[in-house]
Hints:
alpha+beta, five-stranded antiparallel beta sheet, 4 helices, 25% helix, signal
Amino acid sequence: MFQICCKISLLCCLLFSPLVSADSIASYPEGWESWPVVKESVNPPADTVVPPDTSLFIQEAVKAYSWINNGEGSPLTIRVNPKKLEQYKTHGPYTDGPTAIAVSEVQGIIWVTEHFGGLPIYGSYNRKGQDISSMHPTLEPEFCQRCHETYKDICINGTCTEPLLDAYK
Length: 169
């Protein structure tokens, strides 16, 4: 019964949070710097032309984050909570707590994916742990939620499997 109530509460939070604020829902994971790097990719520069056969997910990601580092792009590092490495290898299901982060290395943006009641929740922070989700519409948890829900074939259980660099191989 408790799990059902938690999931209903989380669902209400996800549905109604856009009406209240754009604050991060996922918590800032202290000690993320020691989490293992599982992937490296990029936030590409604004003038990037993606190959025509690139997935819609990658095309949308390139367009959404073209503002990073004043349009100059940034290396992107993906780290996973060491307690969830085995879960990450199969993309879940995930236990509760911080799961993974993506770090825009130049801009210092940290996108957080956390799981609660089996559902993914999202947040955006700077390196000091300050919530920056209101800095840009693409940093708001609702934006993350919408994208990850839209591309469930790539973003399985809230973690995405298609790094941008693969589009150029």
